């Protein structure tokens, strides 16, 4: 779908500088998202927190993040990525500073919610801009490399943070994060292009007043929605929660072994997203669209998860490798994010991206909580712990297969190529 936004394409040099500025902000947002896991022992001791408090503290970030997604999309379409993300990052600076100064659990929680609000534009803003500033193949590459920088942030939140805590303390660490987020604001203000409202194309879809209804009614968005919820949301849920309990309670890992397993899973994801950014333009030139790659690649993840479930404790020391392969195979779904944006005219890209992101985060919450409920439910029925884990994961597997089947059964409407 061609539109007037092609006149806003950036030169290669400017595109690189814009990408670096936005990627730095997204790196920090991923680090901030994951840092509470590393800080949990320190915060538990200092504030006398129980498991419920820790869960609520971690969830506060996602609460603030999710609350902004729908208005965020409208603001991005109207005001552009530069203005929106700068204001949002200012909130993140205040959130990090508030966390550093907190002297109670309520203070920590409020600061965490505020920080979640502040970083909630760190991926949607650049992807909305890339829809107008980059060519189609470059959008796919930029999406993959943005996710790669997120993986860098996840890795940085583990061992590097653990090393810094004894040296500087967690409060100084958050003051440092506040300063880095402010630096990201300055870089984006300096490098990001100014936004001009897109001139609608002649077709009826683009000519209509931008609205979320146009996004949620679109056949292509609907075909992708179940996979966003179960597969993409489930991938994040596995990576940030359920992989570790599986390795410990099913495969027999020690907590330290499970932590190392997660470290290498994050490294594998980092390398995979970098690879996607390198190879996708070549696939696109050969006619392998995002739809085709998702259609061919996702069944691999179903096979790998089936093997993990069926093997159970017998997988032993190979559990970390198996989960790494599973997470890597799920990255085919990451191609859907820019594909959804390209299915809409430029004046709807922000709404499309934020709607899709809302589905992902709703899926993260639902899968994390749902698997826990299922495990407890099967245990209450008298199942052994390992069997309860296996059955709960089987239910999740069936949901992912069903979402994929729905995608395959619906006709692709993604006609956008620019």
Architecture overview:
With 418 residues, this protein is mostly helical. The protein contains 18 helices and no strands.
Secondary structure: elements and pairs:
Blueprint: H1 12-47, H2 51-67, H3 69-79, H4 81-101, H5 105-118, H6 124-133, H7 136-156, H8 159-168, H9 170-191, H10 204-207, H11 212-216, H12 219-250, H13 255-285, H14 290-311, H15 319-329, H16 336-342, H17 349-380, H18 385-409
Helix pairs in contact: 1-2, 1-7, 1-9, 2-5, 3-4, 3-17, 4-5, 4-6, 4-9, 6-17, 7-13, 7-16, 8-9, 12-13, 12-15, 12-17, 12-18, 13-15, 14-15, 14-18, 16-17, 17-18
Radius of gyration from the alpha-carbon trace, in angstroms = 21 Å
- Distance between termini? 6 Å
The geometry reads as globular
Give the DSSP E fraction (strand runs of 2 or more residues): under 5%
Strands, count: 0
Estimated helix fraction: over 70%
State the low-pLDDT regions, or none: 1-6, 199-207, 413-418
Give the quaternary arrangement of the chains.
single chain
Main sheet makeup: none
Which secondary-structure class do the elements indicate?
A: mainly alpha
| Secondary structure tally, helices | 18
Average pLDDT across residues?
A: 86
Order of SSEs: HHHHHHHHHHHHHHHHHH
